[in-house]
Write a structure and sequence with these properties.
Number of strands: 0
Largest sheet: none
Number of helices: 5
Structural class: mainly alpha
Shape: elongated
Length: about 90
């Protein structure tokens, strides 16, 4: 995904270090790491309304359940928001 100016692949250790430094420089308090970009991309697709089956295939998961667990971990606020919006009956 990332390469040098000459087109050679970057070392994974360099990418991890670079993202950590850039996250700190940007004032991001959470851990910034390459795999987090994968989670964020999946969460953005879901927020845009992309079907979870398509997201699952894009991520290469063999099961939609794996994708669902990933998204539940990354987007817990959506669960809380959905429950707050729901009208609860008094019965």
């Amino acid at each position: 995904m990332f390469c040098t100016l000459q087109g050679n692949p970057l070392l994974s250790s360099y990418c991890r270090s670079l993202l950590t430094r850039l996250g700190k420089k940007a004032g991001i308090e959470k851990r910034v790491h390459p795999h987090g970009l994968r989670h964020t991309g999946a969460a953005e697709l879901r927020a845009e309304g992309v079907d979870i089956g398509i997201i699952s295939r894009q991520l290469g998961h063999s099961s939609i359940a794996t994708t669902s667990r990933c998204l539940d971990h990354v987007m817990p606020g959506q669960v809380v928001g959905a429950m707050r919006k729901r009208e609860w009956s008094a019965e």
